[in-house]
Amino acid sequence: MSGLRSEISDLRSQILNAKSELNSALRNLKSEIGRVNHKVTLNNSATLPSGWLAFELGVLRRLKFSSIALPFTGEPDLCLRLKRWRVRIAANDPMLWSYTKLVALVENHLEQLSEDDLEMVLDDAYVPRDNQDNVSITKWFNETDAWWFDNVRFNAERLDSPHKRALSLTLGMMVGDYVLSFDDETRHLREPLSLSKVYRQLAATLPQPVDNSLRNQCSNQDVRGFVAERQHTDLLFLRLPTPTLKTEPHRDTLSGWREEWLQGGDHFWDKFSDTTAGLLGAPVQSKQQYLGFVEDLLQRAAHVPTWALTHTENGFISSEELVETISRIRKIDVVYTKDFSDLLGVRASIITA
């Protein structure tokens, strides 16, 4: 009998140790989401690592401006910092996923999700309805998870304000990024049927709304139109999209699943390619074509007093070539550089003019 008690005690200790290891692994995986994001979305509407954000903020502190325009915003982190600097922000991105986050966290000055709102969004999230609205997300998630995302997307439309809807969808994207951070080797660590729990945990991490008493604008339009409309703006902050030769550069990235989830399917890609063709951010066939897109956009931004262009030097376009292109339109002020080779395998430059 004493031997049996000893075996039971050992088994209990093993179970507790395994549970502790699983919880630790889950926490580590959550913290890795940001790193997973930047690996797959540095092209175009980028998710940037914290060191990169610090580099951008360090350069911006050297410039004098009270209003800023961002044609390719990507994640809203920089805008959130600038709101605390009492800067008036005009933030744009051609991708709906970025625009949704901007509405939730930049345009929104006040609103937060209440417990009733969370209950509404998560209502019967795992219960299949008669028909699935968005079958394209089954490319990204298993059947059970796909139903959860489909129902959350459906329920979010029941919220009574655009800002709350955007907040709920932002949380949904965070949950999806969390799920996709698991790979074949780590997927067994996921707790089954836990996405609603993760959603609530992530809701507690959303930044508090910031009211800088200014009219911050967010848009989801082509970059040329956005830049042309920016009257009475002090600074153009242009994160240059990484050149790509691929015809559909967004579809297979992390931003691709977000876009398909928000758009309700993958039907929109052809139209998106048509509307962005010939614009900065579209696939290119040569460096001359890419630099031509840059020059075209900057010509349209000639009325903005100050420019700051962020460039990642990855072997396709050098900083020297970019400086030469910009200098044909406006005198270069300063070129700031930072080496991210250890983290991302690229060097970053911010060119001011």
What does this protein look like?
With 353 residues, the chain is an alpha/beta fold. The chain has helices at residues 2-31, 33-41, 50-60, 77-84, 96-107, 115-121, 143-156, 162-180, 195-203, 223-228, 254-263, 269-276, 287-300, 319-327, 341-344; strands at 67-70, 88-92, 217-219, 235-239, 306-313, 334-340, 346-352. It has a domain at 45-110 and 210-253 and 264-353: 3-Layer(aba) Sandwich (Rossmann fold). It contains 15 helices and 7 strands. A 7-stranded mixed sheet has the order 3-2-1-4-5-7-6. α4 links the parallel β1 (67-70) and β2. The radius of gyration is 23 Å and the shape is globular.
Category from helices, strands and their pairing: alpha/beta
- Number of DSSP strands? 7
Q: What's the overall geometry?
A: globular
Portion in helices: 40-55%
**What about the largest sheet?**
7 strands, mixed
Strand content: 5-15%
Unreliable sequence segments: 18-46
Strand order across the largest sheet: 3-2-1-4-5-7-6
Radius of gyration over alpha carbons?
23 Å
The name CATH uses for the topology of the domain at 45-110 and 210-253 and 264-353 is Rossmann fold
Number of helices: 15
- Helix-strand pattern: HHHEHEHHHHHEHEHHHEHEHE
For the termini, the CA-CA separation is 82 Å
Which CATH architecture of the domain at 45-110 and 210-253 and 264-353 would you pick? Answer: 3-Layer(aba) Sandwich
CATH class membership of the domain at 45-110 and 210-253 and 264-353 = Alpha Beta
Look at the structure and name the CATH superfamily of the domain at 45-110 and 210-253 and 264-353. Answer: Vaccinia Virus protein VP39
In round numbers, the mean pLDDT is 87
